From TrEMBL:
Listed name of the protein: Phage portal protein
Pfam families: Phage_portal
Record InterPro entries: Phage/GTA_portal, Portal_HK97
Biological source species: Aquicoccus porphyridii
Amino acid sequence: MAVFDFFKARETQAPEAKASAAGPVMAWHGAGRVAWSPRDMVTLTRTGFAGNPVGFRCVKLIAEAAAALPLVLEDRETRFDAHPVLGVMRRPNPTQGAGEFLEALYAQLLLTGNAYVEAVGAEGAVPVELYVLRSDRMSLVPGADGWPVGYEYSVGGRKHRFAVGEEVSPICHIKSFHPQDDHYGLSPMQAAAQAVDVHNSASRWSKALLDNAARPSGAIVYRGAEGQGSLSTDQYDRLVSEMESHHQGARNAGRPMLLEGGLDWKPMGFSPSDMEFQKTKEAAAREIALAFGVPPMLLGIPGDATYANYQEANRAFYRLTVLPMAQRVAAALIAWLGDFSGEALSLRPDLDQVSALSAERDAQWRRVAEADFLSVAEKRRLLGLPVSAEGEMDD
């Protein structure tokens, strides 16, 4: 009899639900994980530059400062005042001047870790025009040996391929160091991506708080006449409807609430964790500035006392961030442009004209000028000047 009862119980059970065996694994894999924004170039540029004031200011500050540096072109003996390379650098193309061209170049490098310059009209001489191409549209085509054999530029489903052969490449690819990628660079925006997410989320939270009359939320407590603590379904729906239509949003900020039938409003004050919220946002802003190498003092971020004054912070900004990037980009450009003309040239920022470094340059010039044991030629070398014929003969 017990055997028949066992089979009868099996027949009355609910039918077995069919599901993927991998479902629980995927559910556990994603449980409790933080939702970060995508790390592709387009998304990072939108959220970290166009949608974040700290990231925007960091990129603009570095790119504008580096683009404003005066450049000097020279070989071993001569500093040029007029040269085809200087001509194309001063007027790269009909739509851009030197400042706009270099600012776009530095900005692409900061946002994506890669910068691409196209040469136009180069036939055995210096190119006639130079263009900065968008990094998110460019892709490198590696060959069988791993070296690039071409670059593909894609716009709206159409592609143009720049072939890289034995002649000088029509594309100059400047990239930042990336320890895990052989062909593309790592941008500061990628390193600051998590801090950007935190800062953007904090801004959205602040906006929502302002929409709620800049007050924390509260609780409506119900106590019935006979001590019951629950509302009926109709009463609950009516209360929710009135709250949504008459007391939510910036339009209803400060509007008095009329409670009836045993309802009582209990406001909730800010907890200590809420009071620390602004400090979290400031810490995220400092992390973004740290990734780009911009002293937080220059961005107006409070709570940073690393540098004694603004002038010292500005000097460190140029020495540690602007000049290294400008020198690296200038060296890459002149090595590429020199291949067209076959000349051994040097292109570098003129430190004598950087106002932020004037105190350092004055001290250096004074020390070199007072060194009587040095010849004129040696003094010129120490100051980064080309050696003239008279200097070579001077003892």
